Batch of 2 targets.
Target 1
Amino acid sequence: MNIAMLGSGFIARFYADTLHAQRRVDRIINVYSRNADNAKRYAEDYGLESYSTSMEEIIMDESVDVVIISLPNHLHEEAVMSCVKAGKAVLCTKPLGRTAKEAKRMLEAVEKAGLFAGYLEDLCYTPKFLKSVESVNNGSLGKILWTKSREAHPGPHSDWFWDKDQSGGGAIIDLGCHCVEIGRNFIGKNVRPVEVMCWADTQVHPIEAEDHAIGLVKYENGAIGQFEVSWTFRGGMDLRDEVMGTEGTIWLNSFLRTGFDLFTTGKGANYIAEKAESDSGWLFPVGDEAHELGYPHMFTDMFDAIDKGRAPRETFYDGYIVNAILDAAFLSAKSKNWKRIIIEDWRGSEGRTGEKEYNSYDADHFLIKKEILPNGDEKLILKHKDSGKMIQKTLKK
Ligand SMILES: NC(=O)c1ccc[n+]([C@@H]2O[C@H](COP(=O)([O-])OP(=O)(O)OC[C@H]3O[C@@H](n4cnc5c(N)ncnc54)[C@H](O)[C@@H]3O)[C@@H](O)[C@H]2O)c1
């Protein structure tokens, strides 16, 4: 496929490094940037046919099949609407919108026009993540009760992120969008997120937006999705997820510990990894960053989906739900109360409260707990089904 790239900054380069690597067949053919020098440099670096400071011109190019939006958050809607006007398939980076309202307008526009629209949520495509979701889906962890996702680093790399009007918020919108979608994937996208409790503060930087937040997203089936996001974290980029179910647990570390530790005095100092704060001492580089961050699998899914006429794993609808959850998080942080998540167009299942199943020990008792003691005895805690009385039973070794 022929791809048009909108934006020539940080993520546009990550995407190009992925798309033009490893003998891939889909190619970026042109690029839009508001700055002609940056557009030219990007076009030269990636061997593109053309570049322009006009977004329309790049999208309208008749050989373009798919447009990738790599622009700051406040420009996503305008860019999506231009793709709709041109009738082009569109892939948009995260977050889809600054608010659910914005995201919903984009969702409705692409659906009305019948266009393919993919949400570029790379962290839901890392090889570890895909395998984890598979384990969850095949029941290895039982029912998912609690997910925890953290993205924390010392802050983003461009001015617009730090300006609330352009970005839509601080760490919540920038990083929370990843964490919330990671939680949804594990808990089940079909399960309705109902309310959010969030703490947020501006602990370090002289900015209007929050630079640190911790939130809980409650789902209709009783599961809880925790997110921890920060622009105040020192020591690199901390990307960790945890999934806790009735039958098992998964812990993932996607960046600071990928099994590659390096010590250097600093001689020959170079780029180490995204948001690394040092280039000497013990360092934690990443073998193939794009791969560890999920970009190759993400684009493979997107382009396969276009070819096969199916939806990708991450859609504009997912982007809209994420924005709806984040809207509630902002309101909760302000009010210090649980806030209902307003989803005007819920497409998942309904009425999944009270989905609890208890293990029976025998006809009369529930099995609460079984444990082997240090002396080898097995201890059972049982609850009588009628009287509710707790008893314990010891099976001697
Ligand atoms: N993991 C991820 O998926 C990931 C990582 C980083 C950024 N992003 C997202 O990618 C988007 C871009 O972020 P980035 O890190 O590449 O930012 P960046 O600042 O590095 O690049 C932004 C690009 O947009 C251009 N631009 C900035 N302001 C503009 C304006 N007013 N008009 C026209 N062009 C303008 C810049 O010149 C640059 O080409 C954001 O939505 C961000 O959230 C996603």
Target 2
Amino acid sequence: MVFIALLKSGKIMSYEIQFDARRCGGAGECIAVCSRGVWEWRVVEFSFLGRKIRRQIPYPAKQELCVGCKKCEFVCPTGCVRVVEEST
Ligand code: SF4
Ligand code: SF4
């Protein structure tokens, strides 16, 4: 998912939050540092080692609000968040 987030230097900047729910520790550090309200608690289902997992964890639900500061990526202790910049 890619959403338009910021107009800078004549280019439309957008950011994609790549998130691996299988590696999330679930402590909510990303929610705490994001000043834009991109992250919210959500019940997520995914497969891990052949098992179906259902957990409440942070999820980057409002990526259109992201300004690409990468605080969530830097604070994440498990490395399951990556903020990718794209311009058009
Ligand atoms: S890069 Fe910044 S604005 Fe975007 S989701 Fe992470 S903390 Fe929020
Ligand atoms: S900072 Fe990383 S490990 Fe912690 S809740 Fe957010 S995505 Fe999960």
